[in-house]
Structures are given as C-alpha cells and as structure tokens.
Amino acid sequence: MKTANSLSKARDGAMKATGEARQAVDQLRDLRVRLLDERDEVASRPLPFELAAEAAEQAIQRRAEAALDRLSVTGLMRPADRRRPHLEISDEQAADLAFAANAAAIAGLIRERLEQECKGSKPLAPEDRDREIERLDAEILAAELAEEGLIRGLEQAGIEMLRRPDADPRALLVSDAELT
Q1: Is residue 135 part of a domain?
Q2: What are the pLDDT digits (tens) for 47-64?
Q3: Is residue 131 included in any domain, yes or no?
C-alpha cells in the first residue's frame, strides 16, 4: 500500500509539474502575442507632422520645377517664320503650369490636411521607430527562445508539446547548448 501511495504522489507531482510547464509555455506565447501587437502599433505610428509637411512641400516643389523645365519658350524667342512669336501648350502642360503657379497654395492645403490628420496621434521619428522595433524584435526572439527551451525540457521528460506553426526558425534551429 505504501508503494501505491508513493507512486500516486509521484504521479500527482509529475502532473502538477507538467501542468506548470505547459502553463509557462502558454504565458510565453501570450507574451509573444502582446509584443507582436506592440510592434504593430509602433510600426503603424505616423511620422512627425513637420517631417511629413516638409516631404510634401519638397514633392510639390519638384513637381512645379519639372513643369517649368518641360515648358519650351523657344517659339517665342525664335519663331519658325522669324516674325510671329508662337507658344504651344498642351492640356497636360497647362495643368502642370497651373499647378506650378499655385504650388504655395497647394502646399498650404496639404499642410492643413496633415494638421487635421495628426491631431491626437502619437508621431514617431523614423530613427526612434527603428530603434523601438529592433528592441521589440529582440524581446520577441527571447520569448521564442524561452518557449523552445521549455518545450525541449518537456520533450526530454517524455512529455509532448506541440510547437506553433509560426515559430521563429532561429528559435527552432538553435542548439540545446545555446538555450541554456
């Protein structure tokens, strides 16, 4: 009877340890999901207003300059018949010239729209975004490595634990020595 009792206690202890290990794996998986959500939030944060406004103004200025560069005034200065100045402007050129003539107003409209879009947002400079994403990626990998270490420990004890199909290959392929 004593042996049966001690075997029952050992089984109960093993079941409890197995349950705790599985719970630890689940907690690491939850942590990974939270970190991935945080990474997505950081990656989708807008650029600072001034950076976006400056980029818009530069793009408008380039477009206006290109419109003027494409305009040929040679017919006005050196007419083909040497008498009457002549200027041909296509519909596309006319639209480009109208854009160039109103570039400052267009930039102002875009700036106003950006101001509206930026209200209440939490902008993040590209360097800060890159640094934060790099930090989160390292934490995600650490969570995955810890998860893999627990799963391998369970397997060594003869307990099967399925791996996630989206597990990071770097965690799956790491040697046992590197996990400890």
Answers
A1: no
A2: 999 999 999 999 999 999
A3: no
153 contacts 79 by C-beta, under 8 angstroms: no
Its domain, for residue 102, covers 47-123
Distance between CA 89 and CA 97 in Å, rounded?
A: 10
Instruction: List, for residues 27-45, the tens digit of each pLDDT value.
Output: 999 999 999 999 999 999 9
Pair (115, 158) in one structural domain: no
Q: Is residue 132 part of a domain?
A: no
Do residue 4 and residue 36 come from a single domain?
A: yes
Q: Are 143 and 25 contacting, i.e. CB atoms less than 8 angstroms apart?
A: no
What is the distance between the alpha carbons of residues 35 and 46, in angstroms, rounded to a whole number? 19
Together in a domain, 107 and 151: no
What does the pLDDT average to over 99-127? Answer: 93
How far is it, in rounded angstroms, from Cα 149 to Cα 143?
A: 10
The reported pTM is: 0.71
Indicate whether 67 and 114 sit together in one domain: yes
Residue 128 to residue 113: CA distance in whole angstroms: 24
Q: CB pairs under 8 A, 24+ apart, for 125-129?
A: 125/47, 125/48, 125/51, 126/47, 126/51, 129/42, 129/43, 129/45
